[in-house]
Request: fold
Amino acid sequence: MIPVVGTPLQQALRLAEASLAEPLLQAVFGLRLAYVGDGSGLPLLDASPVEYQVHVQLASADESSVAASLPCVKSDGQRIPLLSEAFDAVVLYHALEQSEDPHSLLREAERILRPSGFLILVGYRRMSLLGLAHWLGRFESTRAMQLLGTHRLKDWLKLLGLRLLSTDYAFYRYPWSGMGLRLMAWLERLGVVSRAPLGGISVMMARKDVFGMTALHARNQQRLHAGLLAPAPMSNRIYNQSRKDT
Reply:
C-alpha cells in the first residue's frame, strides 16, 4: 500500500483508490504505461511492474505535481501527444472529469493503447454521497470537475471497442473532513462487504479488443475468388472421406 499524506479526508480517498487500483496495476505487464492526470495519483504507479512510464499532465494541473523521475508531456485535456498503439496500459486518473471534452480524451487513450492493452479509469461518481456533496458545492476537490455517470462511460467504452472487464467501488461515506468521517466508518465497511454500486470512487478496467480479423478474412476471401490466393490443401482425412462418399 502506498504511503499517503494530507488531511484525513485526502488520506481516506487515496487509500480507497489504492485498494482498488493497485491490484489491477500489479496484474498488467508490458513495456510502456501512460498515466494521464494530476500528480496526486502518481504513487499508484509504484505497484506497476511496467518499467517505462510516462506522465501526461493536463493543462489545468499544478506544475508542482510533476514527478521528476518520470518523463512528462503536456495535454490540453482533449489530445494526448503520444504515438498510436504504443502503450500496453493507460491510466486515466480523474482525467475525464477535468476535461472539457471527455469523450475525445477517452478516444485518445484508446488510440495510444496497443491491441489487447488495458485501460484503467479512476474517477468520482455522481450517484453517491460524494456526488451529493459535489452537487451541493461542499466538496472542494471536485468543484472544477464534471462528474460522469457510470452508464455513460460504459457506453463510450463499448463504442470505442474497449471491453469492460471489471468495475469496483469504494469510499461510501460523505466527504466530511472532521469527526463525521470517522463516525461513518461503519458505512464504509458495509459498502465494501456488500459491493454495492454506491461508492464515491469507481475504478474500471477495460481491454482494447483486437479488430480487423474479420475484415482481413473477408479481404482474403475476395483475393481467393480472384485467384490471387491458392486454396488451402485438403487434408488426407477429408480427401479419403470424399472418395468414400463418391
